[in-house]
# Entry
Amino acid sequence: MKSAKLTAIILFAAMISLLAGNVMAETVYTVKTMADDVAKVEGKEITIEGTIVGACKSGCKMWIADGQYKEGDLFTLVRAKDDAFKFDTKKHGAKVTMTGFVVAKYADFCGDKADHDNDKHTETKEVKDSCAAPVNVEDATKGDLEEMTFFATTVKYQD
# Structure
């Protein structure tokens, strides 16, 4: 009798585990949804799907977009994390699913000017105010997204 109860409890726990796994299915991002959520997912392992819109001849990097690229469309650079593998350079236009990590770069509209003009200006209030960073360093993820690089750990080509 005890073994029947134990078996029932184990089966019940297994069913709950399977159901929980289906409910917590992994989110698959597009380039646009990754850009929209970049502050939330940056540095976390995610899955992304897209269309290969370019690749370097050596296979060290490629670019993906949501569908066929048209000028002005959002795209992201993809590199193999730690240069662990090369991308297939003959898959232009193919769909691809990858896991990995996104890193974002945010626009600093005044950084270059401040570096070039440093020797001409003293640090007066006027200079500080005229070229203040668009966002606080602590809140940098709230600035304008300039570019994203996706570091892939796995790649699956869909012909």
In short: The domain at 27-107+144-158 is CATH 2.40.50.140 (OB fold (Dihydrolipoamide Acetyltransferase, E2P)). The chain has a mean pLDDT of 77.
